[in-house]
Write a structure and sequence with these properties.
With 435 residues, the protein is an alpha+beta fold. Helix content is 37%, strand content 20%. The longest helix is centred in the N-terminal third of the chain and has 17 residues, at 25-41. Bound molecules: histidyl-adenosine monophosphate.
């Protein structure tokens, strides 16, 4: 093929709303994801991995057709077999599907699972809002007890604190779909919204009958003003839901987890029942995550006691959360030291002279096999160039090999922080370099 047939070269920028994650930023992301999965594992949440795409109806039925996510943001396509598939916009519905598919609901309960991975939503990109973004999260399925709510929320707030973001936990209960509380309340809310219809932004006026609770999510000034005086669900909970909510609050206080009651918090996905919560930037417009602008939620979650049944499965109460790593990284800031320190390379092997190149590669390989993080020059650099590259690699040590060292079965070990050097027998190196 000649150049003419190849046409214009492809656009090398990633698609709109996505980014290429490369070092050093990618170090921070993978470190944070590992910290999350370790934190979750420490409370008995095992890793779950489901496909990046699902049958579209898993989201339509699970997340709900009236939600913004399903209605407007899904990447849906038809495959060559004529099936409608969707790139996952979230993972709660897929995880519940996977649990039901494997019949885990018939085994020991609760089923506690944790995940980290990319999600996809076709939103208008802006700071903290992307079309491919990274979530970590947990789901606990099989128990309706308030203790699970408290456990899940505590784990989320502890992880966020260790990730270095200051958050405020907003807490609400939106009642149970089956119990009289939600149904009775919705009647009152619709009546109120009907009275205010003229004051609502058009997009919210449309929601009055399709999804009245969601009106509380509105960012429109006019709607927010019209909502002052609206009835709140928390004042209309049935006895069971009120009791559940009170227990959750007592348990959170036991665990020392601070929260603010936010009766307008309804969350954006249709599956929520009872407890709903969100971790928002504590600094507000003044704080670090003022950088985040309007995308001030680091994450959120809640109960979804009816989700398994809406997927056609057995009843299986559940609760979980998902946190957005992209936003956590913006909120946590992080300097240049943070980018390199803690990278996996501990030592850099420097070869003096062409004859040392082969022994240097063998030595690096042996040290790697013993479990150490080791790098070396693969560009034929001068010694000076190699020392520079060693510093760039973030290694603590340079292991220098020249003719004299090779002849005596030794290396010169240089501490790259202090500059101190000593001769060390090759067989003692691995022990000395262990972090
Ligand atoms: P969500 O509120 O839709 O909940 O998303 C959780 C978090 O993911 C958000 O607070 C945000 O940090 C991040 N996120 C969402 N969309 C974007 C985006 N376009 N760009 C960057 N970050 C984003 C859920 O996904 C539920 N599945 C949470 C859950 C788990 N509920 C129960 N279990």
């Amino acid at each position: 093929m000649d150049d003419k047939d190849r046409g214009a070269p492809p656009d090398l920028a990633p698609p709109k709303g996505t980014t290429d994650l490369l070092p050093p930023e990618s170090w921070r992301v993978s470190r944070l994801a590992r910290l999350a999965m370790d934190t979750f594992a420490g409370a008995g949440y095992g890793p779950v991995d489901t496909p990046i795409f699902e049958h579209t109806e898993i989201f339509e039925r699970g997340v709900g057709a009236t939600s913004e996510v399903v209605g407007k943001q899904m990447y849906t396509f038809t495959d060559r077999g004529g099936r409608s598939l969707t790139l996952r916009p979230e993972l709660t519905a897929p995880v519940v599907r996977a649990v039901l598919a494997a019949n885990l609901q018939r085994g020991p309960l609760p089923v506690k699972l944790a995940y980290a991975g990319p999600m996809f939503r076709q939103e208008r990109p802006q700071k903290g809002r992307y079309r491919q973004f990274y979530q970590v999260g947990i789901e606990a399925m099989g128990s309706a007890l308030p203790a699970v709510d408290a456990e899940v929320i505590e784990i989320g707030s502890r992880f966020l604190a260790s990730a270095g973001v200051e958050t405020t936990l907003l807490l609400n209960s939106i009642g149970h779909v089956d119990s009289s509380c939600r149904t009775g309340y919705l009647k009152l809310l619709v009546e109120y919204l009907e009275e205010q219809r003229d004051r609502l932004a058009p997009v919210d006026a449309e929601r009055v009958h399709t999804n009245p609770l969601r009106v509380f999510d509105s960012k429109e000034e006019a709607t927010r003003a019209a909502l002052e005086g609206a009835p709140y669900i928390t004042d209309h909970l049935c006895d069971d839901c009120a009791k559940h909510f009170e227990s959750v609050r007592t348990l959170l206080e036991d665990l020392g987890v601070g929260y603010e009651l936010e009766p307008r918090l309804v969350r954006g996905l249709d599956y929520y029942t009872r407890t709903a919560f969100e971790f928002v930037d504590a600094g507000g417009q003044q704080g670090k995550a003022a950088r985040l602008g309007s995308q001030n939620a680091f994450g959120g979650g809640g109960r979804y006691d009816g989700l398994a049944e809406s997927l056609g499965g057995d009843a299986l109460p559940g609760i979980g959360f998902a946190l957005g790593l992209d936003r956590i990284l913006i909120g946590a800031g992080g300097g240049p030291d943070d980018d390199v320190a803690g990278g996996p390379v501990n030592a850099y092997v420097v070869a003096i002279g062409a004859a040392a190149a082969r022994p240097a590669l063998s030595l690096a390989t042996r040290l790697r096999a013993s479990g150490l993080g080791v790098d070396l020059d693969l560009m034929g650099r001068s010694v000076k160039g190699q020392m520079k590259d060693a510093a760039r690699s973030g290694a603590r040590w340079a292991v220098i090999l020249g003719d004299a060292e090779i002849a005596s079965g030794e290396s010169t070990l240089r501490d790259l922080t202090s500059g101190a050097e000593s001769r060390v027998a090759l067989e003692d190196l691995a022990g000395l370099l262990a972090p």
